[in-house]
């Protein structure tokens, strides 16, 4: 029996039908506590804005809340959209989190706005070119967190000198070059943007330069997972996920809906094809089915860690899905 690949989870604090932001956040806490008991390595929260049914806009605040309700699991950002913030503010926020929860905080960085363009303008004001400054902003943030920043006139307290792992996040090939050049771990958003996953991983591994942070390339892939006792039940539960993606593509967003497979079939072939493209890295089934599917995926892509997100309407079934996933990965 080989050692199990590290397993982690992504949470967006998604509001379900009949719930609200408070219940969504509490559900994310429940997930964190549950997967901590199962031995998952980390749980990340994602930054989104102007999305009525996602409660993870104040990501650093939510990370602190989840870390305070757990004991050992790493908690981090998947990610902080750095162009929405100044590097100094991020260094101070995550320095504070690391001070409160030593050895448990991750800092995943992305360059996308995590929202629409109009909201991005509200976030960034006169700095709408911030995304082009992403590589320089990452380096500035690293400098603020470095112990070598002691002679600077601008310093991050708390933050300076703390060991906070920085990850580069990507949903295309762009950030793969940066992660490789800086010698940082790379996390890919294949749960919603799988099209360039293979190319991005290839670029990252080919161009990787060892650094003080990392000797060898380290890739984490985020995928959608719906696990249940049977394939049939998992397929039924997955209809909530597919309806969510249909809502995103048709701009008819709703709270996460109860499973109802028939409603997901009412859309045009074009929409269905777009959903299929977005969800190509989605794994649905029983323990045995997930084990077969994910074993092949992990071996083919050569990833070092798997991160799962699970859009299941019923919280208890979502918790059970994380348990089934853990069991499915035994020996992989």
TrEMBL record:
Q: Does the keyword Oxidoreductase apply?
A: yes
The Swiss-Prot or TrEMBL record annotates one GO molecular function as:
oxidoreductase activity
* Keyword field: Oxidoreductase
The regions listed as transmembrane in this protein's record are none
Organism (species):
Olivibacter oleidegradans
Q: Which residues form the Luciferase-like domain?
A: 20-304
What is the recorded name of this protein?
LLM class flavin-dependent oxidoreductase
PANTHER family attached to this UniProt entry: LUCIFERASE-LIKE MONOOXYGENASE (PTHR30137:SF6)
Q: What class of enzyme is it?
A: oxidoreductase
Enumerate the SUPFAM superfamilies for this protein: Bacterial luciferase-like
The family classification in the record reads:
To bacterial alkanal monooxygenase alpha and beta chains.
